[in-house]
Amino acid sequence: MKGTKALVSLLENKNAEIVFGYPGGSVIPIYDELYDSNLRHVLVRHEQCAAHMADGFARASGRPGVCLATSGPGATNLITGVATAFADSVPMIALTGQVGTGSLGLGAFQEVDAYSVLMPITKHNFRVLDVNRLPHAIKEAWEICQTGRPGPVHVDLPVDQMNSDMDESLLDSEYGIKPLHHDMSGIDSAIRWIREAKRPVILVGGGAINAWSEVREFAEAIRAPVATTLMGMGIVASSYDLNMGPLGMHGRQAAKVAVNEADLLISIGSRFSDRTFSKKSRMQDSKARVIHIDIDPTEFGKHKCPDCINLLGDAGVVVRKLKDLLKGYSVNPEWTERGKTLKRRCACNPCEEGYPILPQRVMHEINSIIGKDTIITTDVGQNQMWAMHYLDIEDPRRFLSSGTFGTMGYGLPAAIGAKAAKPESDVIAITGDGGFQMVMQEMATSIAEDLPVTVVLLNNGTLGMVRQWQKLFWNERYSNTTLKAMPDFVKLAEAFGAKGIRVEKPGEIGDAIREGMDCGRTCLVEVVVDMNEDVLPMLPADPAAAMVRGRCEFLRGEKDGC
Q1: φ, ψ of residue 412 in degrees (nearest 5)
Q2: Measured between alpha carbons, how far is 138 from 153 in angstroms, rounded to an integer?
Q3: Do 428 and 454 belong together in one domain?
Q4: For residue 287, what pLDDT is reported?
Q5: 474-495 burial, b if ≥16 CB within 10 A, otherwise e?
Q6: If you count DSSP H runs as helices and E runs as strands, how many of each does the chain have, helices first?
Q7: Least enclosed by CB within 10 Å: which of 129, 254, 382, 431?
């Protein structure tokens, strides 16, 4: 069997379904094989977006996304998307073409050592120097990207090997990887700490996404307040009465106060990143003990907490064990009530009718429209933080955002990938005018591939988050954050064959978004928002500085937001 045929057969046998890619010289043989295959190929307009689409597909479905690029610049264009997936632990197979094995190292046309270039941002790498090793590479890559802490795996495919014949019987060979190692030797001490705690808080990160049902049952059983990371949104429903919301630099006050008052933090699948638990984010004011549950032992100890128990293993397995051993236990009622009070007090009012439109009002309108199956993707910057702060996410895999890598341009291609994974779901991409202009060519992909999404574009004419820092900490010296020569975004959308709607009044927002979602094709809803509105509250980078407060501070009474 020819190597290209074997590759396609191996992917089909893994039920890969879709490949996001862009052809080029070294992968023409693969594309020729795709022509007659059962795999759907989505032709992107830039290879970076192929990786982002595979990422969105994986986050929305829980299955590995597959992207394909040619050698040289095709492979290097994948880097940002692969790094984004690696930083947020997303399962992905990144396939790259390569020059023939006889030309390696000779500076051949479109040669780059993709194996070495991608190594720091992948879980594992394969270079198929012998076509008979192809089944081993693909089968193990498929397992590695999903086992333990998920992440992308890269497979480099020299063109001469893909054009060679291999032993077809090798397709049936079995290849395995080492089983997961669990270490719950500290479980008895963890149970004792939980029972001794007067103010425990559960911190839920993205590593708990496959254990969302166990986490919810555990939280409801012990009735402790819950805080989430950006990646953990939706694992516990936003409507749950003890969900304090997201923690971090721009997180909700309820979450920050609960964590700082806690005497025990039960962390499930959280990395304790600098945005969540560090001197910069001022979470280390707390003297709480920590029970750290994670599948990746390299994450243990990063929070520098002196009183810590590490439980190594799959989140679902560990949490089920904790729940069973704590049967009948619940935290003291005063602490449960304190959590409820914090959530009630952290009520924001984004309903102002004034002009310019406040971005918070846009989030309020989106929140009133989204249903149980709606998938939200975000770009990075102010639009991301407003979405995190205001949107109610009731289920996992419904809020997709570039967290650790903070990749501008993620929102639109990730939405297209999510739509490919869940065609029955409405998908809304929330983006800013800066990030959108990095990837706006993918509107063509969305139209051509019949993958309709609704893009809500917050247009404030600036690189808003950088401008906010310049405003608050750099004496309003706005260096190169004003976006000039801005396109007419409505005409731009229409040029791609999409629908375009421009909104300039608060009362028009909801109807415009509904019209876009109902129009049957990709629609861009441009909302002109206030360039001077900052994402607040904000924990500054300097731990000695005071929190920057704004509209979203605690209400003194029991008044609810709209």
Answers
A1: -65, -55
A2: 10
A3: yes
A4: 76
A5: eeeeeeebebeeeeebbebbee
A6: 21, 18
A7: 129
Angle, vertex CA 538, rays to CA 298 and CA 432, nearest 5: 90
pLDDT at 183: 94
Domain end among 316, 345, 374 = 345
Instruction: State whether 81 and 158 are in the same domain.
Output: yes
End-to-end CA distance of the chain: 63
Same domain, 97 and 200: no
* Residue that finishes a domain, picked among 345, 373, 408: 345
Same domain, 317 and 385: no
Q: Tell me the DSSP string of 46-66.
A: SHHHHHHHHHHHHHHHSS-EE
One-letter amino acid at 233 equals M
- pLDDT attached to residue 559: 44
Two tokens, residue 315: 């989140």
pLDDT along the chain (562 residues), means of 10: 98 96 98 97 98 98 98 98 98 98 95 97 98 97 96 98 96 87 94 97 97 97 97 97 93 91 96 74 67 94 85 97 95 96 81 82 95 96 95 97 96 98 98 98 98 98 95 94 96 98 95 97 97 87 63 48 36
- Ordered DSSP codes for 273-317: -TTTSSTTTTGGG---EEEEEES-GGGTTTT--SSEEEEES-HHH
Which residue, chain included where needed, has tokens 């429209």?
A: 369
Which two structure tokens, joined as six digits, stand for 169? 């019987």
